[in-house]
Amino acid sequence: MFTIGEFSRIAQVSTRLLRYYDEIGLLKPVHTDRGTGYRYYNAEQLLLLNRILALKDLGLSLEQIQLLIKGNISTDEIQGMFLLKKAQIEQQIQADLQRLRSIEARVQAMRHVEASLPIDVILKHVPAQSVLSVRTTIASFTAGLSLFDEVTAALPEKDIYGFRFCICHSKSFAKHNIDLEMGHLLEVASHAPVLLCDGLHLRFRELPAVAEMATYVVQGGLETIHAGYIDIGTWTETHGYHVVGMPREITLQAPQEPDGSDLITEIQFPVTLHHSA
Fold this sequence. Notes:
Elements: E1 2-3, H1 4-11, H2 15-23, E2 31-32, E3 39-41, H3 45-57, H4 62-70, H5 75-114, E4 122-126, E5 129-138, H6 141-154, E6 161-168, E7 178-186, E8 194-195, E9 201-207, E10 210-219, H7 226-238, E11 241-243, E12 248-253, E13 264-273
Antiparallel strand pairs: 1-3, 2-3, 4-10, 5-7, 5-9, 6-7, 6-12, 8-9, 10-13, 11-13, 12-13
Helix pairs in contact: 3-4, 5-7
């Protein structure tokens, strides 16, 4: 057996915590000397203590832990709870990283404006373009990415598909319940429908020609694209143009990095020159 001090060092927990667990009946010593009050533990109790500490780190209350311990919770069950918690934490980390990248992009955009740096907007004519696309309402941009992957996977293996594109048909910017069209540019004059999940179909259509399209290329994840929209907005007003249609996003390079930092997107805004009365 071990004294409480020895057990504390072996288990890497404080004696104060061990005394508290004894008081509430969560982890009682195998023997307590009636004369001295000294507590003694054995090596078998390390397994029980590890169960308690693992459940505690998973965010459970001591009351919940006591119920689970009394119910003889297995290591496999704790492992399952751990994997769920791990997935939740990793998802939160990704959300936090995306938020940080978005803030960084906004700060850079402010620096850009303050320094009066030139904005590399290119004005060009865009001819009518054949596309194979699906239009649906998605819950979030994350759901949109999943649908994009499904779209690409569903395409027949033919060398006729160009860049990916998307158009947000919502009347204003939205993060949820987005009216989104996505698909691929085509090099052919027709294409049969392609079945997706949930009864959706990729269908052939033609994007209309645009006489004047203000275009701007952005590199970075989706959370940084807003900086490109700001630059186009600034450029159009500075040069006497105004927006006359829905913007398009053309994926010039699909991301390979996990954080999407190598994504290259061309933002396209239909514009027309403002004529003063």
